[in-house]
Design goal:
By secondary structure, the chain is an alpha/beta fold. Helix content is 39%, strand content 15%. It has a single domain, classed as 3-Layer(aba) Sandwich (Rossmann fold), CATH 3.40.50.720.
């Protein structure tokens, strides 16, 4: 299937990470111009997504170079497994987690939305996580839930403009996923699994799908989310 992404310009924030690099590869295979951005990009765009000026400057450079910005993926936050488990309920870790994920997403999306509104088209995808739906790690859960809620607000604000905003929620991402899905847990998946769903949501063929939060891998077993 042709996803109609050839020559479309897509910014991938966190484009050198586990999921971000898989998204860049998938987009490149589809013929898109994937611009990988990170704080220390050796072969991409330097962007500190925690800094407003850095974000705005990086997006301005994309527009100057390519003349357009068709899509944005934000996959910049580190895995929840990198957090200190002894500080799961520590306010400082929760604050930093929200800043590093939800506010990063909001900052980048806000900077891109103006350009997209001018053109009447755009696709924004955030990468969150299924631990938004379970307890046990306040920092990990709150940062993901905050991103999902933020994306829904932005999707509603952009309704009818040609811009869509969605979230992809992987469980544990690994190159060698287990087929087992434990009770109270989510299914594992590969970076490529996430990348394929992200790439579809960046495509014009995703149509008017917006405001959605979609799981990759089996959604948390034993729970119903209406």
């Amino acid at each position: 299937m042709d996803l109609q992404l050839r020559d479309r310009v897509i910014l991938v924030v966190g484009g050198h990470g586990l999921i971000g690099s898989a998204v860049v590869r998938q987009l490149t295979e589809e013929g898109a111009i994937a611009v990988a951005a990170s704080r220390r990009a050796a072969d991409g765009l330097v962007m500190d997504a925690a800094d407003d000026t850095s974000v705005e400057s990086a997006i301005a450079r994309i527009i100057e170079t390519h003349g357009r910005l068709d899509g944005v993926v934000v996959a910049a936050a580190p895995s929840a497994r990198t957090m200190d488990p002894s500080k799961n309920s520590d306010p400082g870790q929760v604050r930093d987690a929200v800043e590093g994920k939800a506010l990063t997403f909001l900052r980048v999306a806000n900077a891109a939305l103006g350009h997209m509104r001018d053109r009447g088209y755009g696709r924004i995808v955030g990468v969150s996580g299924q631990n938004a739906y379970v307890t046990g790690n306040i920092a990990g859960s709150v940062r993901n839930a905050a991103l999902i809620i933020t994306a829904k607000h932005l999707a509603d604000e952009a309704a009818g403009t040609g811009i869509t905003v969605n979230v992809v929620n992987p469980g544990i991402v690994t190159d060698d996923p287990s087929p087992d899905v434990p009770a109270g847990g989510s299914g594992q998946s590969t970076p490529a699994d996430t990348a394929r769903l992200v790439t579809f949501l960046l495509s014009p063929l995703s149509g008017t799908v917006s405001g959605e939060s979609i799981a990759v891998g089996h959604r948390t077993r034993g729970f119903i989310k209406l």
